[in-house]
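hiii, so i know i said id send this last week but things got crazy w the move. better late than never?? heres the sequnce for the chain we talked about at the cafe, plus the structure i predicted for it. fair warning i was half asleep when i ran it
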Amino acid sequence: MTLRILQFQRKWLKDSLNKVTTEPVMFLYMFAFMLTSVVEQRFYVDRACRVDLGFSDEICTNIASNSSEKVIVQKYVAVFVQYNTIAMHGVPLVLALFLGAWSDKNGGARKGPLLAGLLGKTIYSVMFAVNAWQDSWPLYFSLYTATLPPALTGADLAIFMATFSYVADVTTPEERTLRITLLQVSYLITIPTGVALGKILFNATGESVVICFLVNAALLVVALIYAALRLNWRSAKRVMDTAKVVEKRKPFLCDFFDRQHLADTIRTVFRKRPGSRRAYLWGLLIAMGLYTFHRDESSLMYLYTQLTFNFDLNLYSNFRTYQSGVYVLGT
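okay and structure toks below
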């Protein structure tokens, strides 16, 4: 009886592990992001103060006690964050109109966009570490060298599209809801834990932004290796129009930016669906749009709490840990 139980447990464990696909990728990616999320905001303020605005080390080290200089730095960083956000999401916004349709047409080609997105985020982390190491580089250098290049790969957009679509492709309708929920959990749990451990890492390394972002990059490299070895290039059966089989294969860029992909994307949103499904889809889109206001406030929340409550990195990290912990529990 004991032997049968052990065999059953081994079989169950093996079957469960075989079903694991993009969950580790999402966990590593989000954990790396959250690990440096607060450190990154602190870097913006410190670099703008010391290099771009040329204030003294004494003022920048005690920026909370220098109200007039703090306001100047806050305004400068707030403008930078807006430009940095546009640079980070401008190209992916265009790619979003083509990426999903192209991936579907090519039999669920999720692995390529996922690897590209992870590579882009790795480049971002490495170049951010370089910017932190070069203490004479102005703040906007991080936009040109760290933000813009990864944006060309799709970055966050490609990662989220690929991970969720991959799970949807390889699951049955009966298990899909559970698997999508587990994927969601795999990145939600990293939000409070990543922020808390990021504070510990930052203090343990002598407030080294370079080391923090190199750890970030190392986690992304692990995610890259796992995705390259574990995932299939195509997660769904390729469906081809027999009328197009005889057509000459297009170059990649021509195939990717095919106008038909744009038309398919628009048609997906506007076409009539059975029952009230189109209304449900629009409701989800509106909800995601409203959620964006909440999500993107984090890029300016550090500035607000520093200006209003004189928060430093440790206090803000504690605040973000509690805030995100409540959010995760509520979700």
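btw Confidence is low (pLDDT under 50) at residues 238-246. thought thatd interest u
miss u guys!!
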